[in-house]
């Protein structure tokens, strides 16, 4: 009970007691004065009675934890601006599917993967009945994009044209090539063994290989394998690769030797052919075609028994 509420009733009771002419105030007189002022057992202010602070009859109820709403549905409408990670649609099941620049979580929540504007659409080319949610970079774009159209990407950078590299002349002012290509060794050199050596800028007669090509020749230490089985597998693969390379080199050497022998044999055959042609020409020059030598008599007929 608040004392401020009893201020006026007590003041009135005290003034009533002072006006009485009795020399001594009894308990009975005090009760009569308080009853006249309605201060007593019947007064709710004096007794400190409380009233209900919550309305009844279903007007207000506390929710149970098992009935907390899941708050499903659309969180972003069409043409709304989103950034990567913004939730666009919460659902149970795949009522909507992720489209352009969108992803789907394990609880089927569709979220944005890029900054742009939300688009709800259908794509009969992908599926005849499914509904998709996508994000486009330009608000006026429409989904789905035309078939075989270039994919649009946004890197948050300023678009600037890339100038074409200047064409280097094939010959330098001194008349020598500006670049020399060296092939690998062997009958069939591998493309990785190809070396491009360019003319130095500060000299017109000196060649130097480019720095980035020199960096490719440096072999760094490989990371140690975490398992002996994996290391053994790599050693086996490396052994097989080395064996194949040695076999290829051996076959290449045999093929080059065979080519050399074939070339020698063809040279001998060509030399013998030229020798025969030369002897035939000498014989034809010694015995002209018009001159005829003494003819031998015809052979005698054989007698039959």
UniProtKB/TrEMBL annotation:
<protein>
    <recommendedName>
        <fullName>Large ribosomal subunit protein bL27m</fullName>
    </recommendedName>
</protein>
<feature type="compositionally biased region" description="Basic residues">
    <location>
        <begin position="267"/>
        <end position="279"/>
    </location>
</feature>
<dbReference type="InterPro" id="IPR001684">
    <property type="entry name" value="Ribosomal_bL27"/>
</dbReference>
<keyword id="KW-0689">Ribosomal protein</keyword>
<comment type="similarity">
    <text>Belongs to the bacterial ribosomal protein bL27 family.</text>
</comment>
<keyword id="KW-0496">Mitochondrion</keyword>
<dbReference type="Pfam" id="PF01016">
    <property type="entry name" value="Ribosomal_L27"/>
</dbReference>
<feature type="region of interest" description="Disordered">
    <location>
        <begin position="257"/>
        <end position="305"/>
    </location>
</feature>
<feature type="compositionally biased region" description="Pro residues">
    <location>
        <begin position="295"/>
        <end position="305"/>
    </location>
</feature>
<keyword id="KW-0687">Ribonucleoprotein</keyword>
<dbReference type="GO" id="GO:0003735">
    <property type="term" value="F:structural constituent of ribosome"/>
</dbReference>
<dbReference type="GO" id="GO:0006412">
    <property type="term" value="P:translation"/>
</dbReference>
<dbReference type="GO" id="GO:0005762">
    <property type="term" value="C:mitochondrial large ribosomal subunit"/>
</dbReference>
<feature type="compositionally biased region" description="Low complexity">
    <location>
        <begin position="283"/>
        <end position="294"/>
    </location>
</feature>
């Amino acid at each position: 009970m608040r004392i401020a509420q009893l201020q006026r009733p007590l003041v009135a009771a005290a003034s009533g007691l002072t006006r009485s002419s009795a020399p001594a105030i009894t308990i009975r007189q005090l009760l009569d004065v308080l009853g006249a002022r309605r201060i007593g057992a019947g007064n709710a202010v004096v007794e400190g009675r409380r009233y209900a602070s919550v309305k009844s009859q279903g007007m207000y109820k506390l929710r149970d934890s098992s009935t907390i709403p899941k708050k499903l549905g659309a969180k972003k409408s069409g043409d709304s601006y989103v950034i990567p990670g913004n939730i666009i649609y919460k659902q149970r099941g795949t009522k909507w599917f992720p489209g352009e620049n969108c992803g789907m979580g394990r609880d089927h929540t569709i979220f944005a993967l890029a900054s742009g504007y939300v688009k709800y659409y259908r794509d009969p080319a992908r599926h005849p009945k499914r509904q998709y949610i996508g994000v486009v970079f330009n608000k006026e774009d429409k989904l789905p994009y035309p078939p075989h159209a270039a994919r649009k990407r946004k890197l948050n950078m300023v678009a600037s044209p890339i100038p074409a590299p200047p064409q280097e002349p094939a010959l330098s002012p001194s008349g020598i090539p500006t670049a020399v290509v060296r092939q690998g060794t062997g009958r069939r050199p591998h493309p990785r063994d190809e070396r491009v050596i360019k003319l130095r800028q500060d000299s017109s007669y000196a060649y130097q290989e480019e720095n980035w090509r020199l960096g490719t020749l440096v072999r760094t230490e490989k990371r140690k394998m975490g398992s002996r089985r994996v290391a053994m597998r790599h050693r086996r693969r490396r052994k097989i690769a080395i064996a194949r390379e040695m076999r290829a080199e051996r076959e290449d050497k045999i093929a080059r030797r065979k080519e050399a022998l074939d070339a020698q044999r063809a040279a001998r055959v060509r030399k013998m052919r030229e020798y025969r042609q030369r002897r035939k020409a000498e014989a034809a020059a010694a015995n002209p075609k018009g001159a005829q030598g003494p003819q031998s008599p015809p052979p005698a007929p054989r007698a039959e028994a």
